[in-house]
Specification:
Elements (H helix, E strand, L loop, with lengths): L7 E4 L9 H14 L6 H8 L3 H11 L4 H15 L10 H6 L5 E5 L3 H10 L6 E4 L11 H10 L6 E5 L2 H9 L3 E5 L12 E3 L21
Parallel strand pairs: 1-2, 1-4, 2-3, 4-5, 5-6
Helix pairs in contact: 1-2, 1-4, 2-3
Protein name: HAD hydrolase, family IA
GO cellular component, one term: cytosol
InterPro entries: HAD-like_hydrolase_sf, HAD-like_sf, HAD-SF_hydro_IA, HAD_sf, PGP-like_dom2
Length: 217
């Protein structure tokens, strides 16, 4: 039995709940190629794992492209997701269903895109904060703090799950333990408390509804 069981999960969205990276990486690479520059997906992947904004800025500078040109490629993917959502990450439904408390989302994604993905994949959450609604982006902990205040959750009973180093930095700044999912072939350093290859590896850390009374309050 793990030393600590968590009652609430703070979820990142892209790359954590939803497998968005393959399509975004491909779209950005294709846009760079269309502008006349050879590029491989594995040049894009380490950049998007820091953030999509960072990837666009870096690629624009590296290949002398307009950031708006690359943002339009990303937006085309997001528009497509409204009808054809990216696939759910393996294990997300099982892990979310196992939570005794609340499933909470902190994302840089705009609310329209986030809701379309969640609804299309039938993923239910209790509350969500989106940076474009006027909140600071991670690694700033503001979005975590807002949800902690809204729900009254004790940070010590929460686990934040993400796929980028900034997810763990933001969680720790809010007093929340962090888990990080690694992308195969994309080495990243992280201060996360737990590192896993799949979401199901985190199941032993979660206080299930039937065991909620024994979890930390």
């Amino acid at each position: 039995m793990p030393e600590k069981l968590y009652r609430h999960i703070f979820w990142d969205m892209g790359g954590t709940m939803v497998n968005t990276y393959p399509e975004v990486d491909s779209a950005l690479a294709q846009a760079v190629r269309a502008a006349g520059h050879p590029i491989e997906i594995m040049e894009v992947a380490p950049l998007t794992r820091r953030s999509i904004r960072f990837a666009i800025t870096t690629l624009a500078q590296r290949y002398d492209l307009s950031p708006d040109y690359l943002r339009s490629a990303e937006q085309a993917v997001k528009t497509r997701w409204e009808k054809f959502p990216a696939p759910a990450m393996p294990g997300v439904h099982a892990l979310a269903a196992s939570v005794a408390g609340k499933n909470l989302v902190v994302t840089h994604r705009d609310r329209r895109s986030a809701c379309a993905l969640l609804e299309g994949l039938r993923i239910s959450v209790d509350a969500m904060v989106c940076a474009p609604d006027g909140y600071a982006r991670k690694p700033d902990p503001q979005m975590f703090a807002v949800l902690l205040e809204q729900t009254g959750a004790d940070p010590a009973t929460c686990l934040a799950i993400g796929d980028r180093p900034i997810d763990a930095v933001a969680a720790h700044a809010a007093g929340i333990d962090a888990a990080m999912i690694f992308t195969p072939g994309v080495p990243l350093e992280s201060e996360a408390d737990y590192t896993v290859d799949t979401l199901t590896e985190l199941l032993p850390l979660i206080a299930a509804p039937e065991s909620g009374a024994g979890a930390r309050e």
